[in-house]
Specification:
Distance between the termini of chain B: 40 Å
Order of helices and strands of chain B: EEEEEEEEEEE
Order of helices and strands of chain A: EEEEEEEEEEE
Radius of gyration of chain B: 13 Å
Strand content of chain A: over 45%
Helix content of chain A: under 10%
Structural class of chain A: mainly beta
Strand content of chain B: over 45%
Distance between the termini of chain A: 36 Å
Shape of chain B: globular
Largest interface: A-B, 26 and 23 residues
Largest sheet of chain B: 6 strands, mixed
Helix content of chain B: under 10%
Number of helices of chain B: 0
Number of strands of chain A: 11
Largest sheet of chain A: 7 strands, mixed
Oligomer: heterodimer
Chain lengths: ~110, ~110
């Protein structure tokens, strides 16, 4: 049981390049989230998906798009990367009732 | 909206107790969490407390909740070097979202 799996673990992009961060969960959870973590700012919610087929903006959605491909997978896309998007990105999936959220290992993204 | 605040850094000597504090604003939360993030890893749930409790103890961990002041604390007794991590206070939001605090980096000095 892998829980939440994110790929890639590390990525360096040039300004203006695009990329997709992949996330998959094998716990049959309905909800999945994408957060970014920046020093001194905690985790900020980018987008979330409460169930398959639905997505909603979080606190900091600008510059990102998401796709809830199926119940297992929730991807995050940067269409035109900017240095301000240098961050560590986490995918997470809570259990029903929200008593615990399971996190992926994170993707460390650097935009130069 | 929810807002969760923590101090950014705490340094303690090995064997001492650590106390990490948090203030939150959403008084309707049914429970509050503490997550731990070890270097290079994602967050893992450490413990949580229901809002109808004022204390929860789990081995070396003690969680205290003061609902009147909207203050949550995590006490780690006999702090070890393996406790060095970032600790996040968190509360549930709508649609099963979780709102995290800024995180407190705990440094344990041998």
């Amino acid at each position: 049981n892998a829980g939440v799996t994110q790929t890639p673990k590390f990525q360096v992009l040039k300004t203006g390049q695009s990329m997709t961060l992949q996330c998959a969960q094998d716990m049959n959870h309905n909800s999945m989230y994408w957060y970014r973590q920046d020093p001194g700012m905690g985790l900020r919610l980018i987008y979330y998906s409460a169930s398959e087929g639905t997505t909603d903006k979080g606190e900091v959605p600008n510059g990102y798009n998401v796709s809830r491909l199926n119940k297992r997978e929730f991807s995050l896309r940067l269409e035109s990367a900017a240095p301000s998007q240098t961050s560590v990105y986490f995918c997470a999936s809570p259990v029903a009732g929200g008593t615990e959220a399971f996190f992926g290992q994170g993707t460390r993204l650097t935009v130069v | 909206g929810e807002d969760v605040e923590q101090s950014l850094f705490l340094s303690v000597r090995e064997g001492d107790s650590s106390v990490i504090n948090c203030t939150y604003t959403d008084s309707s939360s049914t429970y509050l969490y503490w997550y731990k993030q070890e270097p290079g890893a994602g967050l893992q749930l450490l413990t949580y407390i229901f809002s109808n409790m004022d204390m929860k103890q789990d081995q070396r961990l003690t969680v205290l909740l003061n609902k009147k002041d909207k203050h949550l604390s995590l006490r780690i007794a006999d702090t070890q070097t393996g406790d060095s991590a970032i600790y996040f206070c968190a509360e549930p939001g709508g649609y099963q979202k979780v709102t995290f605090g800024t995180g407190t980096k705990l440094q344990v000095i041998p």
